[in-house]
Amino acid sequence: MATSLKGVQYPKSVILYAVYFYVRYAVSYRDLEEIMAERGVDVDHATLNRWVVKFSTDLAAAAQKRKRQTANSWRMDETYVQVKGQWAYLYRAVDRDGRALDFMLSAKRDKAAARRFFKRAISTNGRPDRVAIDKSGANLTGLQAVNVIRKFAGSGRLIRIIQSKYLNNMVEQDHRFIKRITRPTLGFKAFHSAAATLAGIETAHMIRKGQIAANGKTGFQQFASLAE
To answer: Where in the chain are the domains?
Structure first.
């Protein structure tokens, strides 16, 4: 993992356990402080928050590199997350089998944000044959902009765009896990900490769905292996 755990006061296993427990289950930092105390670890909720924010992004990047191959038929949608009392937008995509592809937190819901998300998802997962989206004009124009760039760059076949509420039910249902885990936060205090925490939650969700080779490991062991 790019971010080193060397020099921290607590053992690596303790830090990773705390981070995993927070991003996997619907608990507050004060709840997690009590849980850690029950296991003989005296650590305050502010430190737990710093661990999650500091290490989640690198763990998510490692998960993206190790995840199983995904299908080339996508479902894309966005959901709402509260940051500093304002609504931000979590762009998410899964494949036709419900496997996570990518995610991106954005302060705005517009063509530029949608285009940025699609470019990011394609760079990570490769070009899809088709993408199902809802009736959002911003998502449509954002994906069309990606196709225009591909056309002029001579990057091969264009992406087929399907606007279908029915096909998008899968990703909308998938939002529920993310919303359930974030509910105890009562809203994030800063954009960067929201983005990092959501990266950890998405990683735990990916492991839960079997997208990382288990090799007999538990969910936590798979999560911890991302730091190796």
So the answer is: 12-68+190-225, 73-174
Strand 160-163 to 130-133 pairing:
parallel
Q: Are 127 and 97 in contact (CB under 8 A)?
A: no
pTM for the structure as a whole: 0.93
Asked whether 63 and 212 are in contact (CB, 8 A), the reply is yes
Dump pLDDT digits (tens) for 136-157.
Answer: 899 999 999 999 998 988 877 8
Digit-coded pLDDT (tens) for 81-138: 999 999 999 999 999 999 999 999 999 999 999 999 999 999 999 999 999 999 889 9
Domain 73-174 fold is Nucleotidyltransferase; domain 5 (3.30.420)
The alpha carbon dihedral of 103, 12, 16, 188 has a sign of negative
Distance CA 174, CA 96 (A): 12
